């Protein structure tokens, strides 16, 4: 990420009081509230049906708990996917299907690790990826994020 140009800085100064952080926080809060209710209802359903808690239940809780930052968000998505795979494993007892689920799970974890490394090492020097005022050479973030979104 490179430092902003003079025209970009001028634009930012002209619009310095246009703050959308409250809307972003509100949207995040609503989505987090809905997700929390869904997970709680899952545990209530397990309790009512006296079904034992399993790995899919605990990985969805972990995914919900760590969805705060972009790196943790990617890990959260991965944990949600693993939770779904573990749920399928519990529902479908077929050994061949379990082998396929393991393969998909390995791919999900490998893809997650690759995405986290991509975010960390997207700029040279690395700290420029987290500080926009450091002059650096970075990859095209928009194209990379689009590619990851398509593959996910």
SSE blueprint and pairings:
Layout: H1 6-14, H2 21-48, H3 55-65, H4 70-91, H5 95-120, E1 123-124, E2 137-138, H6 141-151
Antiparallel strand pairs: 1-2
The strand order across the widest sheet is 1-2
Shape: flat
Which oligomeric state applies?
single chain
Q: Enumerate how many helices there are, as a single number.
A: 6
Strand/helix succession: HHHHHEEH
- Terminal CA distance reads 24 Å
**Major β-sheet annotation:** 2 strands, antiparallel
Helix content: over 70%
Percentage of residues in DSSP E strands:
under 5%
What attributes characterize this protein structure?
152 residues; mainly alpha; two-stranded antiparallel ribbon; 70% helix
Describe the protein's architecture and organization:
By secondary structure, the protein is mostly helical. Strands 1-2 form a two-stranded antiparallel ribbon. It has helices at 6-14, 21-48, 55-65, 70-91, 95-120, 141-151, and strands at residues 123-124, 137-138. It contains six helices and two strands; from the N terminus they run αααααββα.
